[in-house]
Amino acid sequence: MEPRLEANLVNWNSRVRVHVESRFYDVEGWLLRTPGPPSREIEALGDLEGKTLVHLQCHFGMDTMQWARAGATVTGLDFSPASIDEAISLAERAGLSERASFVCANIYDAPQALSGKRFDVVYVSLGALCWLPDVTAWGGVVADLLAPGGRLYLHDGHPFASCLDDGGERVIYGYFEEPDSPFSSDSTLTYTDGERISATRIYEWNHSIGEIVAALIGRDLVIDSLIEHDWTLFQQFPWLVENTSGQLVVPEGHPRIPLSFTLLAHAPSKVEEPLRSSEA
Ligand SMILES: C[S@@+](CC[C@H](N)C(=O)[O-])C[C@H]1O[C@@H](n2cnc3c(N)ncnc32)[C@H](O)[C@@H]1O
């Protein structure tokens, strides 16, 4: 694995225990409440009873397993062994092991790690693409994992918001993909409450909305919708406030900016035959 991804892997391994014990993820509450997917995801994907879903960068699997509760057979993939170990043990505790399995692999190796299997849904939830140096290659992975007619659900942080510093005050990072110039930083903090983490160095890459769309179109996926949201799901900047739906938003009276986005796409159902010359 390339050294910057290696550094990120060490960082993610060191976050897992802190996250599992955090109020932010509230694992014990989640086990008691047994939530299914959020309503906005159900609206987007409909009933997935009996369908197969792969969750890329699944962390320790809470978002993944919400779709198992909704009747899908789910597979989570993440490159952090600590995440995958926690996901497997959480699936057992939640009684979801029969419908939820987890695979440890770098996302760029996902098609081989999943033995060429194709899925009805490729699912990606918040905090994913910024960890990947090459969004075009990511688009190829998505295309290689989708069954004919299969759908992509992607909800992620908006690349405009990723241009701002931690205080959300100044543009300090570029909007466009620069595979060789990642944002690098050192911090003992993570996005949850809890202890400080030991492995601090991380590398992140921004990918513009246009580059993300082009990565999917370039692999013949069809974009069904793209919505930019004025909300996110974590305290990305200190001045964001929580609204009544539990989303973090810009305080009223201030200019709204995009904080996250949702993109839906699908793979063609079958390869279009080229027109024969007599039909042209
Ligand atoms: C912010 S977390 C995703 C949180 C997720 N939305 C959830 O369900 O909780 C980002 C995840 O990406 C994973 N990751 C980062 N780079 C990766 C890579 N190259 N291949 C696979 N997983 C990766 C990390 O291990 C981490 O679990």
Describe this protein's structure.
It is a single chain. This protein is α/β, with parallel strands linked by helices and 280 residues long. It has a single domain, classed as Vaccinia Virus protein VP39 (Rossmann fold). The chain has eight helices and twelve strands. It has a seven-stranded mixed β-sheet with strand order 3-2-1-4-5-12-8, with helices on both faces. A hairpin with a 5-residue loop joins β10 (241-242) and β11. The longest helix has 18 residues, at 3-20. The structure holds S-adenosylmethionine. S-adenosylmethionine binds next to α1 and α4.
Summarize this structure briefly.
28% of the residues lie in helices and 22% in strands. It has one domain: Rossmann fold.
- Spatial gap, N to C terminus: 49 Å
Percentage of residues in DSSP E strands: 15-25%
Number of DSSP strand runs = 12
Instruction: Determine the CATH superfamily.
Output: Vaccinia Virus protein VP39
Task: Order the strands across the largest sheet as they lie in space.
Answer: 3-2-1-4-5-12-8
Tally of individual domains? 1
How many alpha or pi helices? 8
Rg of Cα set: 19 Å
The helix/strand class is: alpha/beta
Bound ligand species:
S-adenosylmethionine
Let me know the largest β-sheet. Answer: 7 strands, mixed
Q: Tell the overall outline.
A: globular
CATH class: Alpha Beta
Order of helices and strands: HHHEHEHEHEHEEEHEEEEE
Mean pLDDT: 95
CATH topology: Rossmann fold
Query: Helix content range of the residues, please?
Result: 25-40%
